[in-house]
Amino acid sequence: MKFDSSILSKNTNMKLIQVTKNGTLRFKMSDGRLGISYPSGYVRVSVKGIKNKLYQINKQLLKESDKHGYWYERELVMCPSERYLMLLKFDYRNCCEILSSNSRDLVQM
Q1: Average pLDDT over residues 6-23
Q2: What is the rounded CA–CA span in Å between residue 94 and residue 76?
Q3: Three-state DSSP class for 9?
Q4: Residues 24-33: pLDDT tens digits?
Q5: Cα 68 from chain centre
Q6: Rounded to two decimals, what is the model's pTM?
Q7: Which helix or strand (DSSP H or E) is residue 5 part of?
Q8: Which string of DSSP letters, residue by residue, matches 56-105?
Q9: Which residues contact 43 (CB under 8 A, 6 or more apart)?
Q10: Per-residue pLDDT reduced to its tens digit, 34-88
């Protein structure tokens, strides 16, 4: 199923607040948190109420090794529009106040 990003952009208040000289995009999420998209492929969101503490929202990949057991690695998103869409989906699912359960189902992570 093809995803229509216009559904999200109409229903969120996420706004671009800064573009740094190295290409990092900083957004203010609908609930006031900070969302950051890095050119390196990482996407981070601040903890509610604590803007200087960030966590990654990139998907985790399980890696295995005979010698070292297993570890987790983050999936890097190199396309800027995909990173933006990842933040938009996060904002829609986690930061918007009033959403019906049916409209949340439209946005699958």
Answers
A1: 81
A2: 21
A3: helix
A4: 999 999 999 9
A5: 30
A6: 0.77
A7: helix 5-11
A8: E-SPEEEEEETTTEEEEEEPP---HHHHHHHHHHHHHHHT-S---HHHHH
A9: 35, 36, 37, 56, 57, 58, 77, 83, 86, 87
A10: 999 999 999 999 998 887 899 999 999 998 887 878 888 999 999 999 999 999 9
Domain locations in the chain? Answer: 5-102
DSSP lists the bridge partners of residue 25 as: 19, 37
Question: Are 95 and 30 in contact, with CB atoms under 8 Å apart?
Answer: yes
pLDDT at 105 over 60: no
Strand, helix or coil for residue 21: coil
Q: Record the tokens describing residue 31, joined without a space.
A: 């609930």
Tokens of 33: 């948190």
How many angstroms separate the CA atoms of 91 and 93, rounded? 6
Q: Are 74 and 56 in contact (CB under 8 A)?
A: yes
